[in-house]
Amino acid sequence: MTFHILTIFLKIFDSYLTESLVKRAREKGILAIRVHDLRDFASGRHKKVDDRPFGGGPGMVLQVGPIYRAVQSLTRARKKRRVILFSTRGKKLDAKTAKRLSAYKELVLICGRYEGVDERVARHIADEEISIGEYVLSGGELPALVLIEAVSRFLPGFLGKRESLEEFKGSYPSWSRPEVFVPKKGEAWAVPKALLSGDHKKIEKWRRQK
Ligand code: SAH
């Protein structure tokens, strides 16, 4: 799976995508991530990618031209590619959507900024609009990272043996050592007895109840 990120803030992606599970997956060749600078697709000397909204109003809007040219420049496996625009008006991201998206060969992630993106991107370029929740962020970069991680968990080989795909539905609370933690004030915080029994059937049942 290749994730193409279209953004004007490339550096945001440097640290996160070079750590942890995503890093390991990139090294193993399970996924590839390409960050593209929208300014490379701007016309004119000033490499402008935004302009004022028609009809007035505050702020600037990302223009359709650079986004169009950027998406055009990438495209090879059109059929197995999905172009996603991050938008506060999009469909809310959930595990089901992430799983569905994991079947594509390429995901193109368009990160909005400022007051948003010229509506022609949503209407003519993107296959779908996705929101990561009912709040407004200053750009689509964090949503892109969230989506990459949520989708990647469904790619074969991304998770180690010990991590389970069913985690979302079957998630249960965990405890670790020490068995008893003594806070400065009040009673000790003990680990539930059921987990210390060594009886795996009993533990399984207890976890399911939780
Ligand atoms: N004025 C716009 C907000 C723009 S925020 C509005 O009211 O909808 C700038 C960009 O950040 C958006 O274009 C989008 O790409 C991204 N963004 C902000 N919040 C988001 C969210 N909850 N989910 C997905 N993308 C978001």
From TrEMBL:
Q: Where is the major localization of this protein?
A: cytoplasm
Gene Ontology CC terms, in alphabetical order: cytosol
The UniProt GO MF terms for this protein read: tRNA (guanine(37)-N1)-methyltransferase activity
User: Which parts of the sequence belong to the tRNA methyltransferase TRMD/TRM10-type domain?
Assistant: 1-209
Q: What is its EC number?
A: 2.1.1.228
Binding-site residues, S-adenosyl-L-methionine: 112, 132-137
A GO biological process of this protein is:
tRNA N1-guanine methylation
Q: Transmembrane stretches, by residue range?
A: none
Can you say where in the cell this protein is located?
A: Cytoplasm
Catalytic activity as recorded in UniProt: guanosine(37) in tRNA + S-adenosyl-L-methionine = N(1)-methylguanosine(37) in tRNA + S-adenosyl-L-homocysteine + H(+)
Please give the superkingdom of this protein's source.
Bacteria
Among Pfam families, the record links this protein to: tRNA_m1G_MT
Q: What class of enzyme is it?
A: transferase
- Keywords, alphabetical: Cytoplasm, Methyltransferase, S-adenosyl-L-methionine, Transferase, tRNA processing
Per UniProt, subunit arrangement is: Homodimer.
Q: Which HAMAP family match?
A: TrmD
Name the protein family.
Belongs to the RNA methyltransferase TrmD family.
Q: What is the recorded function of this protein according to its Swiss-Prot or TrEMBL entry?
A: Specifically methylates guanosine-37 in various tRNAs.
Full protein name: tRNA (guanine-N(1)-)-methyltransferase
Q: Which gene encodes it?
A: trmD
